[in-house]
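Exercise 3.2. Students should predict the tertiary structure of the chain below and write it as structure tokens, then compare their answer with the key that follows.

Predict this chain's 3D structure.
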Amino acid sequence: MSLTPAAPSTTRASKRRFRALGLSAVLTVAAALTGVAAAPARAATAVGITVNAGSGLGTIPSGAIGLNTAVYDGNMNDAAAPGLIKAAGINALRYPGGSYSDIYNWQTNTTQGGYVAPNTAFSNFMGTAQAAGASPVITVNWGTGTPALAAAWVQSANVTNHDNIQYWEVGNEVYGNGTYGANWEADSHCTTSASGGPVTIGSEPSQTYNCGPGTYANGVLSYMSAMKAASPNIHVCAVLTTPGGWPDNVTNATTSPQSWNQTVLTALGSKTDCVIVHYYPGGSDAAAMMNDPSQISGIVSTLKSEISQYAKVDPTGVKIITTEANSDVDMDTQPNALFAADMYMTWMENGISNIDWWDQHNGPGTNPPSVVQGVQDYGDYGLLSSGGSSAGVTEPAVDTPFAPYYGIEMLSRLGAPGDAMVAANSGNPLVKVHAVRRANGNLDLLVENEDPNNPYTANLTYNGFTPSGGATVQTYANGATSITSTTQSSASSVTVAPYSLTVLQLSGGAATTPPGPPGQPTVSNLSSAGSGGNTGSATLGWPAATAGTYPIAGYQVLRTGSGGTGSTVVGSPTGTAFNLTGLTVGSSYTYDVVAVDTKGGTSLPSQPVTFTVPPPGSTGGGSGCAVHYAVTNSWPGGFGSSVTITDNGSSAISGWNLTFTLPSGEAVQSGWNGTFSQSGQNVSVANLSWNSTIAANGGSVGIGFNGTTTGPATAPAAFAVNGTACSTD
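Answer key:
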């Protein structure tokens, strides 16, 4: 986030750079609940919700629910701050604040050309973080700093003061340094022309040189070396572009001949241990904005694919963190509260370790404020009020929470770090659901009604869980200034009001102690069938569960559907290993394991394991062909891709047909150097007369196409030439 102080007491956001592609819908504005004029009562519409309590999506990470703080915010360390942060369940704080990170000197507590508010030095920040029980996330100065300055910060914090800070970012939105023609991020590495000429910080041209992704990547390696010399076990995180958002996959022959992510990850290679993206999806209206979290799965999948392809490391060992996230639609009102809760849960369900809301305090926007469902919106990106005025409208008193604060607080009613997230599905896209199995075996559900007009009655079906008794119901209603709590006798349904968040807390009622969860499965013997084959196999193994009241009789191995939708029991072994066969080459699979005792009692699910079946050649089977696929450009609703087919065999390929399956939401629009056809998501490309032969021993043919997409453009999982699966690079 790029911020420019308008005055010591208030700041205003000046840039919105990420625009995710969302579904467009029109929702009629209507009066809502607490604190606003009441609408006529409407009959609730039934919707089915299914919870698959044995289908694990991972545990809630420690330090995942984060918030940005900034050195220009005079209210950062107000006396009320620690209590408000802790009450919301926020357990991470990012410092020193967006673009200011790249002009901030932590030793002198000064910024080059910026404003630092009193009592916002690192020691003041740490006092608030420690009082709130929140883990710091620190952005070191790439723009005007040095590796030595960053290493000294790590030394002071982790060695001298024993602060045990794990996540350290190298720079903020570094790609905003003018490399791609937009300049909001200070970067002293830049020059005004390809031949030289230093840039004066504060007067950067719109196009800069000698500071593109290659310069940044090499710099990260220098920072990493210096910082890990001070504290070896920290995560040093590199800035990446968000898949599907500007400037993802933008290239420039002079300053960035390959994409930012490809350049950075290729340079980092095996040293890649943590990467950063920012997430500002926006949306044309509230409905589109609230639908945007559905794209997070594709964003994460693309990042993992890029880490594997370019860094050539196992992406499961690389931390991904989202250190800025917010929307620019109805920012202080209920739609953004609904967005916040859904967004945080969706990132975590996809394995993200930390998500930080922008911002603790920000100040009202410059556009005329609006009223949303009877509630005043101030255009303020802050979670808490700054007490400022804009366009004749004055915010409430400083530190008054806005609606997204309560949306985040609802997550603390849903689960805690270490609890297991499990799959849940709704029969209506306006009613979102997330589910968590508590450490004691109980089950909590978050039900979000994103319809501004209509209530719904959610009829609940449970697989792998039997509720006992009624439920505690926590609710945050439109316009409310607190979360309310009631009880109900039924666990089979709950009615949710328009524009509301509801957490249903259920007891499992077990009279006996269930087994403990098995350890996280690991994958061994992963292989494809070799040349000419398109199926693979693997072996799952896991640490045994501990028995509860009754002995363990065996296990259930469950496969989770794409996007966490549903689960299927694929085996019931009595031991701690299970062979998987008939796997599709290039496809990704997610499994978890549940322990079952001699009385049929089940454990919480293990942590899931996700893997992709490699093409022949990746596991020593040998493939006669290789395919390189790259997204070369992207724009709202579309993308361009290049594909290179290489003959690795000893005989030429005479006449070829390339087949692959595009991810959901993608389609070929036009292609070149081949005859393209598409049926569903399956694409076939036949040679033309002039490129029908691919020479042996490394000969290649290049094709390409432009496509349409409803989300981030992601790579197909697997390719085959004339029916033979190819390796990928």
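Discussion points: The mean pLDDT is 88. DSSP finds nine helices and 46 strands in the chain.
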